[in-house]
Amino acid sequence: MSSLAGRLCIDVQHATDRIVAVTTNLQRPLEHISRLLTGREPEPALRCIALLFSICSNAQQVAAVNALEQALGWQTPLEVVRARQQLTELELIRESLLRLAHGWELPIAADQLKRLVSLCQHGISALQPMAGLQALADDPQRGELNTALQQLAEYGQQLQDIGSCGWLMPRLAHWSGITLGGAVPEALEPTRIEPLLAALREGRVTAEIDGQPRMTGPATASEITGSAGRQIEQRVMALLHGACRSMAALQTLPPVACMAQPVLEAGEGMALVKTARGWLLQRIRVERGRIAEWQIIAPTDWNFHADGLLRRQLRGIRVPVEQAETLVHELVLSMDPCLDFEVKIDHA
């Protein structure tokens, strides 16, 4: 993301070989972004989205345009809906590959990674015009795009094979004796967000449903209990398998509604879009042709809630003080935040 992205700080209190408390401080200027967009006409506001976000920028644009079209009462052609879905899936693949390669040392040759990312970027560039208001389904680059999608599908099976080679185990072996605990939050269910919509209308932009945190994306692969090594492996493999599924399905994606559409008020639109890190939500309200409200809840807001997965699983576990910072760092990395983060250990 841009310099407006914010920062994630994890403060850990450690005493007598045990983590006694975890504080998750997620600093995100979403209110500032909302104020920046409020008062603008829809098209200039939509153009701002591409400038404000660098990570998952296409997902942000697609969520925004989908919500805006709902708010304006416009019908979107099914071909455009499909193209936008392909656009966000291509971004999901690219973001997943980059995280797997640079964060988890996915055993893939540099030239092959470069080729995969290039194919994703080629498709993204061809489909980007579909993220505009009143986009037309006519696409003169469809032939070249289909070739890129086909090549990505062929690479998908190769990545599946890499996933079965156990490349993570040497790195995670020293966490096999550390057991995580705590009741994990429920997974975010896109078809059950009506309580969240009610809260957003009241101005409560919080990553909660009925007062409880949720988790989304690879974090949902977590077991209720289990070793830290096992859970990190599950999340990383969930990221890899998700990318492989997207690569295999790029050419056959049906236009789908990702949520049971709640009853919206006049001038209101809401959209959920799948990203590598989980569900991205935007709600927009338009009055007299201008933006009256623009609310965003990103996957990182769900996954790093103050009473979320990380705090619940780490509090009370036994881990030597010299290993605590590395363990927390790898757990955070396995949940794939969309911004920079730091871990601080307070040796009580």
From TrEMBL:
Mg(2+) binds at I296. Ni(2+) binds at C338. Keywords: Magnesium, Metal-binding, Nickel. The keyword Heme does not apply. Its cofactor is Ni(2+). The keyword Cell division does not apply. It comes from the Bacteria. GO terms for molecular function: nickel cation binding. This is Ni,Fe-hydrogenase I large subunit.
